[in-house]
Structures are given as C-alpha cells and as structure tokens.
Write the structure tokens for this entry.
Amino acid sequence: METIIRFFKDYISWNSLPKIRLTDFIEILILTFVIYNVIVWVKQTRAWILVKGLIVLLILWLFASILNLSVILWIFYKCLNVGIIAVIIVFQPEFRKALEQLGQNHLVTPLFNFNDSKDKGDRFSEKTVADIVKATFELAKAKTGALIVIEKELSLMEFEKTGIAIDSLVSSQLLINIFEHNTPLHDGAVIIKGNRVAAATCYLPLSDNMHLSKELGTRHRAGIGVSEITDCLTVIVSEETGKVSLAMGGSLIRNVDGDYLKNKILSLQSKAPDNKKIKLWKGRSKNERETD
Ligand SMILES: Nc1ncnc2c1ncn2[C@@H]1O[C@H](COP(=O)(O)OP(=O)(O)OP(=O)(O)O)[C@@H](O)[C@H]1O
C-alpha cells in the first residue's frame, strides 16, 4: 500500500505534470487552425487522391517492414526523393492555388495592402454604375460577347499588363465600342478600376473547375477564373445567347437582369468600415466574399 501511495506521490503530483505556458496554448491553436485548413484543402482538391495513394504506399511499406522484405524497402527508400519532387510537380496548380488563397486570407491581406488610393470617396460614381449596366444590356441585346472585370480590393494589375492600357472614364459608349466585332480591342477582357476603364484585351486565367457546365466556353471560364483568385466582380455577356452572367468568388450566377447587376456593382461600392476594424498597416479589411 505504501508503495502505491509513494508511486502516486512521485508521479501524479502537480510537480511531475508538464508545465503548460501561454505560448503552448497559442501553438496548439495555430496548429489546430493549420491542420484543419490542410484537411479541408486536401478534401476539396485533387490532393485527396494523392492522400489515398500515400495511404496505400504506407500500408505496403509497413507490410514490407514487418516481413523485412529488404529489396522492396530498398526500392521505397530510393524512390522517396524522386517521389516528393514528382508530387510537387504534378500538384503544382493545387499548391499555387492554396498559396494564393492564403494570400487572400482576411488576416493576411490587410497587413500588406499598400494601396491607399481608394481610401478617399466612393469607388464608383452613379454614372459609372449606370453606364456599366447600360452597356452590358445593350451588348447583350445585340448578342455581342463581352467580358468586364470590375476591381474591388485586390489589384488586377497583373492582368491589366496583359492588355492595352485605356485609362479613360467609364461610359456606356466606350464599353460598347470596345466590344464591337472586328475592332482591334474587342478580344479579351476589359478591366474597370473605380470610374475608369483601365485596360482592354486583357488575358485572364481560365478556371479549371471541373464542375462547370460543358456548354460554357472560354469567355465564361476566364471570367470565373479571375474571380477565383481575386475579389473582383466579372460581367460576362454571351455572344451565343445574349445572356448576362456574373462571376464572383469562383461562382457563376447566370442570366441576371439589370437590377441584379446594379446591386452587385453597388455591393462592391461599400468599402469595409476601416475605422471599426484593426488597421495594422495602411490596410483595410475586405468585405465578405460571396459564395454559392
Ligand atoms: N483567357 C481569356 N481571357 C480573356 N478573354 C478570353 C479568354 N479566353 C477567351 N476569351 C474571350 O472569349 C472569346 C471566346 O469565347 P467563347 O465562345 O469560347 O466563350 P463562351 O464562354 O462560349 O462565350 P459565348 O457564349 O460568348 O460564346 C474570345 O474571343 C475572347 O474574347
């Protein structure tokens, strides 16, 4: 009995328990957040197939280890380095997308948003909103294909650079003219920043979303693609059907009317209330992004 009491005194006393500091709690929270997000990412991408493959390989390796199958183990170890590089190459698009999403994270973006030019006044004037809506539906009526990307918080500079600079005030006439068939500027996308048409003929990244309807061509895929990696609003006018669709946060809303488009543009207008949020470095928190 005495031995048992001594055991409890020696080993289950408060002194023998590891000390938990505040930093340990912080570490646990960070790790929980990271592991949860990695699991969600793995489930949402092709990486899930990779994980299943890795589990099969792990079982094989365990089997070979238990039975001491030296040749199989030797092959495993020799292939390990090449395998890691192969995985990085094959899953490069997924890794890229994950890093881009991390960069868009609500915690990170405000820290590194150096662009304070939009801190003053509204993003769009009433005329700009009305002209975008007017041009869109006139183009739709004439079944003229169009792709208009409206910038929100995240810069579209990298796509702007692929096109021809315009830097002109938005007007319905200008937009209609740009997308007119057989004119030098009609191909590609127009980028709108505030009240100005920044550039035309811009090339956008195509979405690789496999769940998109097969009837959607590259114009729609490009519109959705740019909305997956930035917080822009993309207006797509189908040349084939004359219907207007919107892409936001990687989702496509098809066949919208003028009021819906106007409200969506106005929703970009409302900037995040900077003064109510923690402003760490000349930055501003993003408005909530729309999902399906
Ligand atoms: N990556 C891209 N970036 C910008 N614009 C693009 C891109 N790919 C295609 N486009 C535009 O889309 C046009 C081709 O549209 P396509 O017919 O393939 O698309 P769609 O989605 O079926 O649209 P529509 O209903 O208008 O036919 C091109 O002429 C070009 O203007």
Notes: Residues 115-119, 272-292 have pLDDT under 50 and may be disordered. The two ends are 65 Å apart (CA to CA). Residues 126-269 form a domain with the YojJ-like (1 fold (CATH 3.40.1700.10). Residues 145, 147, 187-189, 203-204, 206, 216-220, 222, 238-240 surround adenosine-5'-triphosphate (CB under 6 Å).
